[in-house]
Amino acid sequence: MLPYRDRSALRKIEEELAASDPVFAATLSQGVPPAESRRWQKILVLAEVTVALMLVFGLMGGETGWFLWGLLAAPLLVWTHRTMLRSRREGAADDQP
């Protein structure tokens, strides 16, 4: 626990920040996304890289199967990305007063 003097100094800094830049202060007050959300974001990026590599190697190497699986997985990843962004935006809109 911080001493009273430090807590009051931090409270003053927070009030000054909120007064000078309310958007930035609101962004900071939202905090860090949960660990599970960050994990899913990393998994999604890894899946996107994998699909891109499947498409490239399928085309370059003449592997039709790799290319077709990548072609089938790409729309699924686009849908997943759009769904995650939409839910994140709706969650952010619900948090604002």
Automatic annotation (TrEMBL):
Transmembrane segments annotated in the record for this chain: 43-60, 66-85
Organism of derivation: Amycolatopsis echigonensis
Protein name: DUF3040 domain-containing protein
Keywords: Membrane, Transmembrane, Transmembrane helix
InterPro entries to which the protein is assigned, alphabetical: DUF3040
Pfam families in alphabetical order: DUF3040 (PF11239)
